[in-house]
Amino acid sequence: MNAFSKCKNLKVVYLPKKVRIKSFGIGYTEAYYSSEEEDYITQKIKGFTIKGKKNSPAHKYAKKNKFKFISV
Q1: Beta-strand (E) ranges in the chain?
Q2: Nearest to 27 by CA among 38, 37, 39, 42
Q3: How far apart are CA 48 and CA 35, in angstroms?
Q4: Alpha-carbon span 28 to 47, nearest angstrom
Q5: How many Å apart are CA 28 and CA 8, to the nearest integer?
Q6: What is the end-to-end Cα distance of the chain in Å, rounded?
Q7: pLDDT at 33
Q8: 3-state secondary structure of 51
Q9: Measured between alpha carbons, how far is 8 from 6 in angstroms, rounded to an integer?
Q10: Nearest to 23 by CA among 70, 60, 68, 72
Q11: Whole-angstrom distance, CA of residue 64 vs CA of residue 24
Q12: Beta-ladder partners of 49
């Protein structure tokens, strides 16, 4: 979580086929837990794109989080 949260200019990443991505691992600004909302608060990085292999964890993460995905 929050691996690249301070990298707001990071717009495209290529992820190898077997990489694992935790919730909010990439493509989001810093996530923090709100006890008031009882959930994590985040904001997507505008225009963020993930490149990787089709049906890989990267592809599934992009799909789940509604990020643009480019199969390479």
Answers
A1: 12-14, 32-34, 39-41, 49-52, 68-71
A2: 42
A3: 28
A4: 11
A5: 8
A6: 25
A7: 83
A8: strand
A9: 6
A10: 60
A11: 11
A12: 12, 68
Model confidence pLDDT, tens digit, residues 22-67: 777 788 887 778 888 888 888 888 888 999 999 998 899 999 999 9
Q: Which token pair is 5?
A: 């949260």
Q: Please say whether the beta carbons of 45 and 27 come within 8 A.
A: yes
pTM of this structure: 0.72
Enter the tokens of residue 55: 């049906």
The dihedral through the CA atoms of 34, 37, 39, 44 has a sign that is negative
> For residue 62, what are the β-bridge partners?
none
Gap between the Cα atoms of 19 and 69, Å rounded: 15
Give the separation between CA 49 and CA 40, rounded to whole angstroms.
22
Please report, for residues 34, 47, 71, the alpha-carbon distance to residue 68 in angstroms, rounded to integers and kept in the order given. 27, 8, 10
